[in-house]
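Researcher: Here's the sequence for the chain we discussed earlier.
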Amino acid sequence: MLLLELERFQSDLAEEVGGYAEAGDELVEGLVFTLNTSREHALLQRLLSTEAETVLLFLTVEGDDVIRTASYVLAPQLAVALHDDYRTQLGCLRLPRVIVQVVVSAVLTP
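Model: Thanks. This is the structure I predict for it:
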């Protein structure tokens, strides 16, 4: 079920940001879409209200796998969007991790 939700989210996100010409606009709109979708996601919100300790542990202390996976999904998209950017490959791997960590923090903050 989690993989189906992830695939649906990725598809919806790609559709949402696909019409922007500038990478900065894609990034901002992608962040807004991700935060709104996360905050409106019924299952995630139910888990946060009924199993908060487990979810918080899963996304923070034990969240490295989740953050790494989400970063690896985001990295190729950023590499394409920032194709003429000055970042190195290592920088293109660090940026998605920071973005994912910011999103997780924002989602967990009421």
